[in-house]
Design brief:
Helix content is 33%, strand content 17%. By secondary structure, the protein is of the alpha+beta class.
Length: 266
């Protein structure tokens, strides 16, 4: 009986790309196309293990499988060509220094109520949008977060990725994508992360599904045709992120130890 329940729920989610919550469901395409469905899957059986529940909640193609944009090198090619970079007026650490209080306040306004475990995401959560590797960004192998965001944060992430690609093409090209390293965290995942990372705080904006981290140390290189330097790609990403912040769409923190832009949608 347990095995049949598990197969049933995995089939529902893998086929529809759905995270069902509060009696409704959200369906999305690779990145930003969202629709709706009247499907109402039953609750996850209580005796499933943590890994089994995660398999149910996470569509099979969240990271790599069945994705046309999965060929990548996680490093810069040698001999990078210089890019035109617009100086932001200060070091990135000083420029992107929005306090955690601002992140948390914005997250509480537009985000979900924090959840403790992954079963809560299914049984008691708000509407969320699955986050998957696509043309605009690459989703890293997640160890301490789940691949879901609220719609505003999902749209912001897609827009940052698209603007990065467009700006890079306008300045001479190169086939690169940004790498997303963290998204929604549960209270149990935050507790586990704090044992390994002192920067992780009890009240994290990641708890509200409004926040994501984008690496500035590593980019996904899909082609060696136009090699670029990591430093130029980092500064180009900073320009793109600042354009969104200037429009009032997000708060940003430059994380030194984690080598990422910590971004919360507003």
């Amino acid at each position: 009986m347990r095995h049949k329940f598990y197969l049933k729920f995995r089939h529902i989610v893998a086929f529809m790309g759905v995270l069902a919550v509060g009696g409704s469901a959200s369906v999305v395409s690779l990145c930003s196309g969202r629709g709706s469905s009247s499907a109402q899957p039953e609750a996850i059986p209580a005796d499933l293990s943590h890994d089994e529940v995660l398999a149910v909640l996470t569509p099979a193609d969240t990271i790599r499988a069945n994705n046309p944009f999965n060929t990548c090198l996680d490093s810069m090619p040698p001999g990078g060509h210089k890019l035109k970079i617009n100086f932001l007026g200060a070091t990135l650490g000083r420029f992107f220094n929005d306090s955690n209080y601002l992140h948390i306040d914005a997250a509480r306004r537009i985000g979900i109520a924090p959840i403790y475990g992954i079963k809560d995401a299914w049984n008691n959560g708000e509407k969320l949008v699955p986050v998957r590797t696509c043309r605009e960004y690459y989703l890293d192998n997640l160890t301490h977060s789940l691949p879901y965001l609220v719609p505003k944060a999902s749209d912001l992430l897609s827009d940052i990725g698209a603007a990065f690609n467009d700006t890079l093409a306008a300045r001479g090209g190169g086939s690169y994508r940004i790498k997303v390293t963290s998204v929604l965290r549960t209270r149990s995942l935050v507790k586990s992360l704090r044992r390994r990372n002192r920067n992780a705080v009890d009240t994290s904006a990641h708890l509200f599904a409004t926040t994501f981290d984008i690496s500035y140390a590593k980019f996904i290189c899909d082609s060696l045709t136009v090699p670029r330097t990591q430093e130029d790609l980092k500064n180009l990403l900073a320009e793109v992120v600042e354009a969104q912040r200037a429009r009032g769409r997000c708060y940003v923190k430059y994380e030194r130890k984690q080598a990422c832009f910590h971004i919360t949608a507003r």
